[in-house]
């Protein structure tokens, strides 16, 4: 039974405060996914603690987990193209089945990632990135690849960016950060030792720490000033971090586009970057 059906079934037996919150979620699931716990409380005339307790009564650790469940329920209602399925890829699956499962899992991870991040938190991260004197990106493994991609995009906007795939260099960079600087740390598990130590050092240096991590309670989320969440199926058996990486790329691409929109001279920087590369390509062809 989906969480929306579960809430509907329990509405009559709920206390008045819980019934009001539950009724709103059942009738407005798409709107609920865009609201923080405080915003949902305001919409229903209840306290933020009532929203959190409502989530816990349904068996979730907090409001973010409830949002994920609602997002999954909505995803199940979404009519996928004919033949598309979700699920794990098995050794006996044929080429077409693997293609459909892979595409399905990627779309689901990106859709749910956008759903669990409210506009207020995205706005906080955007403001911090826009105002930062220097931006240091940290991550290991697949997260390091996403960090590198985001660093290139930020450089195109003329941002002062620090990134290196070597965690020792990342640690050294973090030691130079100050109150006007920002650390953008990526770790789906939130337990990567290198990334966690870098975040702790950046926090000690009074730099703003943005964490991009999973919904589960984890050490990196506790260190961060601003938390953005990614959803993936990385708790399943896997050969590589595929959906978590896609979710991270979705989030960093969204932030990049929003920065381009916000920064007055962004198009000039992007044009200059493209022009410089074009010259290089022309010389290679001659």
Can you walk me through this structure?
Residues 1-77 form the HTH rpiR-type domain. Keywords: DNA-binding, Transcription, Transcription regulation. This is DNA-binding MurR/RpiR family transcriptional regulator. This protein is an alpha/beta fold and 286 residues long. It folds into 2 domains: 3-78, Arc Repressor Mutant, subunit A (Orthogonal Bundle), CATH 1.10.10; 106-279, Rossmann fold (3-Layer(aba) Sandwich). The protein is 60% helix and 8% strand. The protein has 14 helices and 5 strands. It has a 5-stranded parallel β-sheet, sandwiched between helices. The model is unreliable at 82-86 and 235-239 (pLDDT under 50).
Total helices: the number is 14
Radius of gyration: 21 Å
Spans of at least 5 consecutive residues whose pLDDT stays below 50 are 82-86, 235-239
Could you give me the name of the CATH homologous superfamily of the largest domain?
Glucose-6-phosphate isomerase like protein, domain 1
Categorize the overall geometry.
globular
Distance between the termini: 64 Å
Domains, number: 2
Q: What percent strand?
A: 5-15%
Q: Output the structural class.
A: alpha/beta
CATH class of the largest domain, please? Alpha Beta
Overall pLDDT, averaged? 87
Strand order of the largest sheet: 2-1-3-4-5
Q: At the third CATH level, what is the topology name of the largest domain? A: Rossmann fold
Helix content: 55-70%
CATH architecture heading of the largest domain: 3-Layer(aba) Sandwich
Q: How are helices and strands ordered from N to C? A: HHHHHHHHEHEHEHEHEHH
Number of strands: 5
Largest sheet: 5 strands, parallel
